[in-house]
């Protein structure tokens, strides 16, 4: 029996009022005024000096997010994190579960929706759903073709999982393997802690014609239909054109609150698409890093030098691929990508 419903050590500090009073999984936003109001002792204070006392500075407001386990749970309140690993740890602490049980998170939906994955940024009004480890599965796969038909991503905290399965591919015909499954082992070799491009490389290196043993772990399925944010609340939905402030998570350095720029978001999405075509990986943080290097360059030579002088040189990008990346960055900086996006949205 999977011990995922253990809640005995949940902290009252982390559980929302809705959860404490048993109002189901429906979330309500915290009262911002109440959260940021400093307590005073109400007593009179006698000053013995001639200088007036300096008024106390109001505390900085906490960035607070609501969270649920995707298969159903009370609503938790999460704050005080600066990167994805810290976020996962906060969620684990809230629900008194090992952090290793969390596979990935989606925003504003409890479903295994790969278009709603939590990546490098979170809208300040987004609702977080944590997908927990469920049933492990082992299948034998014969690599009868050069490509298996998988697109792989990872959660930024050590778990790579299947983002997409190409229709009609080898993996599309393998029973029990599904989108959202964590790829845990290949022929007994653990892949926990590997990034998605490392897992993709191992799968690509399997010789054609070989049969290998694939072990995956599916996310726990929901038996509830009435969980999630209240229907009257605002939902972030996606990263493009929300007009809302976002919390950008970084692997190095503190998280920052930024106003989203549609031009930047379109460029990052375009770079992500190029990475997926070139390497079969999907990495918003990597795409953001490439954009930041390109945004400081004035020409393709400066961009190539910036890539060579960064940690990204280990990826071994070809000159042609660097040129394609620069084309997308240059289009974004000149506004051409944004115009194409606006045109497509009209139809």
What can you tell me about this protein's structure?
- It is a single chain.
- This protein is of the alpha+beta class and 347 residues long.
- Among the domains are: 134-219, PDZ domain (Pdz3 Domain); 261-345.
- The chain contains 9 helices and 14 strands.
- The strands form 4 sheets. Strands 2, 3, 4, 6, 9, 10 and 11 form a 7-stranded mixed beta sheet that branches.
- β2 and β3 (76-79) form a beta hairpin.
- α5 crosses α6 (284-295) and α6 packs across α8 (319-334).
- It is flat, with a radius of gyration of 23 Å.
Under CATH at level 1, the class of the domain at 134-219 stands as Mainly Beta
Whole-number mean pLDDT: 74
The SSE order reads HEHEEHEEEEEEEHEEEEHHHHH
Question: What's the CATH superfamily of the domain at 134-219, by name?
Answer: PDZ domain
The CATH architecture designation of the domain at 134-219 is Roll
What proportion strand? 15-25%
Task: Please give the share of residues in helix.
Answer: 25-40%
User: Can you tell me the residue ranges where pLDDT is under 50 for at least 5 consecutive residues?
Assistant: 1-12, 17-49, 224-228, 230-243, 338-347
